[in-house]
Amino acid sequence: MFAWRLVLPALKRIVPIDRLAPAMTRGRGPRPEEDSVVRLASWIYGSRPLTGGDNCLERSLLVYRYLSQANPETRLILGFRNGDRALEGHAWVAVGERSMGADTDELGAYAPVMSFGPGGTILQRTRDGA
User: Fold this and answer.
1) Which of 20, 43, 60, 95 is the 20 to 30 A CA-CA neighbour of 6?
2) Domain annotation covers residue 85
3) pLDDT of residue 115 exceeding 50
4) What pLDDT shows up at residue 27?
């Protein structure tokens, strides 16, 4: 996970998300426990919980990589909502019906616009808010 922490800031800027998400699911290894993956990823990215911070895409890509090995129902979700001053984006991971990092607050929920499933397959893509 530490190596990914070093390269993801650059990768997310140079590799389109529809190519990066599938690449993140190609890892092989033991099937990790969901809570352990989330705790370790949160620790690597600082003391912020999964619901906040500037690195939600990086953190979510990392969690997606490891949880998708353990559970084929793992999805990487990208969403937007109207913020105080501008449109706000957020990335989170869901396993089945359990969302990790997509809580609502006074601004409301994020509307999913793109999601990736097993092997990085695009499950949902919304264009122009439709």
Assistant:
1) 95
2) yes
3) yes
4) 62
Q: Residue 45 sits in which domain range?
A: 2-125
For residue range 2-49, what is the model confidence (pLDDT) as tens digits?
A: 888 889 989 999 999 999 999 998 666 667 777 777 777 767 666 444
Beta-bridge mates of residue 90: 79
Q: Is 76 left (phi over 0), alpha (psi -120 to 50) or beta?
A: beta
Is residue 8 a part of any domain in this protein? yes
- The residue whose two tokens read 């909502």 is 81
Task: Record the tokens describing residue 45, joined without a space.
Answer: 């990215």
Number of domains in the chain: 1
Per DSSP, the residues of the chain read: -HHHHHHHHHHHHHS-HHHHHHHHT---S----HHHHHHHHHHHT-SS-TTSSTTHHHHHHHHHHHHHHH-TTEEEEEEEEE-SSSEEEEEEEEETTEEES----TT-PPEEEEEE-GGG-EEEE--TT-
